[in-house]
Structure formats: C-alpha cells, structure tokens
Amino acid sequence: MNKIDITIWILLIIPNIYAYQCLTDQWPPKSKSNIPTYVIDLDTPPLQRWNQIVTLYKSQIRDVLDYTKHFIVNTWPVFTFLIDIMHTKLPLIADTLPEPYGQELKGISQASGISLGEIIFYNIFYEISSLCTSIVTQDQNGYIIHGRNLDFGLLLGWDKVNKSWILTNELRPLVIAINYTKNGEIRFQTISFAGFIGAVTGIKPGRFSITLNTRFDLNGGYIGIIEWIYNFDRQQSFVTLAIRDMLTGAENYDEAVEYLSKIPLLAPCYYIISGIKPGQGVIISRSRQTSVNIKTLNTNNQWYLIQTNYDNWRKQPSIDDRLTPAIQCIETKGKNNTNFESLFNLLSSQPMLNKVAICVFFQ
C-alpha cells in the first residue's frame, strides 16, 4: 500500500443509549452525507491562510458561539463569569501560543468579524468536552483500517422536536476536510470544524493516521487552560495543536508515537495512531504529564484496538459503556471478516454511534 485514502461521511441517528446493535446493512453510506474538502496553503501568511474557509462559514461559526453563550447564561447562570473571561482573558492567549497559531487565530477573527476571544474559545473547547469512539483493526493479511466516530455537543441543550442535541445540530454544518499543502503538495490532511486550527483526526498520506479521544480525569483541561491563561505553566501543549505539530514534523509512525507519548499536555486524552505496516496500531492513554498506558496491536495476538472516553483496562461506566458492545460486535464479525464495510457497520451501530458521529476511515 503506497497511500492512505480517506472517506468521510456524516451519520445521523437518534439513538437509545441502552440499545445494543451490531448492524450489517449500513454500507454503503448515503451520498448526501459527504463533506466538503478545502485547502490550507502553508506557504500563505498565517494571517491570511484561513480567509477562504472562514468567509464561507463565518455565519455558522457565529451561530455556534451565540448559542453557546446563550446556553451558559440561561442554563448555568453561576458560570456567566466565563463570558467575561472569554472577552478579557482569552484574547491574550493568541500572543502566548507558538507560531503560526496565534497569527492564524487573529486572521480568523479578522476574516469572520468575530472577536478574538470568541474565536479562541471556539478553538479550545475540545480541551474540555467531547465524546468519541476510535478503532484500529488488522485483517488476516496484515492490512490496517482506522476508523472513528467524533461526537460533540452532548448535554448542551436538547431539541424536543427533533430529539437531538442543539449544539450538535449547530456544529454539523461546520464539519470539513482540510488538505494542508506546502510547495503545492499535500503534507497532511485533517477532519475538523471550519475555523478550528487544531486537529482531532488526521493523516500523513502513506505513513500514518491519528485520532483523538477525550479522557476524563480530575486533573483535566480546565486546570491546564487556567495554568496557561495565568502563566503558571506554558511549557505544555494544547492536545489538538500537539497533533498538528506532530503531523507537521513526524515522518513516520514511530516518530508520531514517540512525540505524542512524551509531550506535556494541557489536558488528558487518548491518542490512537495507526501506520501502514502490520502491527502498527497503538492507543496512548495520556495524563497531562506522561503516558499512563500504551496498548499496541499484536500484543497477545490482539488484532484490534478500541478506545472510547474511559480507560480501556478499567470497568466501563454503565451509563456510557460503548467499549463492551464494540468488542462484542467486532468479535462476532471476526478477524477474517474485518474490512472497510464491517467496520463502518460497527461504528454505525448503537451505542457506538451517538447523537452525531462523523465516521472517518483510513485504508
């Protein structure tokens, strides 16, 4: 295999969190769920390189921010002070970030007409909130497939009519694919939200792929952000910017694993990485300071890796156990039947598929 092809679909469903499915009939996906692809030219000055995307999506970004502020003020009045922090403290972050990120954020603010504090809030929200399921499998021939569901907006306002989370509905139109280019060539690709400069899903074509899952921990992203704002500790990286740094600098699977295993982070997380050779698959369970667990393919004949938002070596919470059904489903399908179609069907099954999921596959 000399390249990694990427196919993306948005899957929409109204799930019952207590249901268990192992579907076999979700492939092929509906063509209307394809998402658009754009180019970020790294040879363009950082202040300008997001102009095209942001101009197209500025009204949707504005809608997300307006809804989030409205929800905070009306649902959690005690946290209204966060709106003040958004406008007074968050703009200062731009000048403390390593380049090109500060300039990119300022450029997005200028192109959209949205305040810098709000744009930074939009870009750091993943440090503290999201739900995901990531899977890496290896078939009987050693071929690697990497897939994920990205769930965002849970618990932030319920639409009783459509039976869905309101913020999820606001975010859905912002999902895009981005080709980052330099000297006219694609350096790496990401699946993200328009105007979001970090990466939660990415590929280095022909070399490796990466997905990011939130890891819940008391020493979490809120603490890291406070430390950064008040300059208690800026010798750490935002988890999504660490992925973008890695995609920029790492040339192979081993370098990617090495980098993300050791870099200090603002928030705990799970990095799921796959390569293009047999056995190249890993879940790196990160605290903010170090790796607390590293699980790899082929250890004890392990031919798949599954990660949700809880430590995979511990008992899963009964209210949100996606790991056990995913394991049961993939074991039912079996290694000999592991392929693009079967993994898509698995990630389309409840409870792995939540209120909104972007199914992304790397082959």
Q: Could you characterize the architecture of this molecule?
A:
The chain is of the alpha+beta class. The protein folds into 2 domains: 6-36 and 133-362, Penicillin V Acylase, Chain A; 45-124, no CATH class. The chain is built from 10 helices and 15 strands. A hairpin with a 5-residue loop joins strand 3 and strand 4. Helix 1 crosses helix 3, helix 2 packs across helix 4 and helix 7 runs antiparallel to helix 8 (253-262). The longest helix is centred in the N-terminal third of the chain and has 25 residues, at 51-75. It is globular.
Question: Helices and strands in order, then pairings?
Answer:
Layout: E1 6-12, E2 37-41, H1 51-75, H2 81-88, H3 101-112, H4 116-124, E3 131-138, E4 144-151, E5 158-159, E6 164-165, H5 166-171, E7 175-182, E8 185-193, E9 201-204, E10 208-214, H6 221-229, H7 239-249, H8 253-262, E11 269-274, E12 281-286, E13 291-296, E14 304-307, H9 323-333, H10 340-347, E15 356-362
Parallel strand pairs: 2-7
Antiparallel strand pairs: 1-15, 3-4, 3-14, 4-15, 5-6, 7-8, 8-9, 9-10, 10-11, 11-12, 12-13
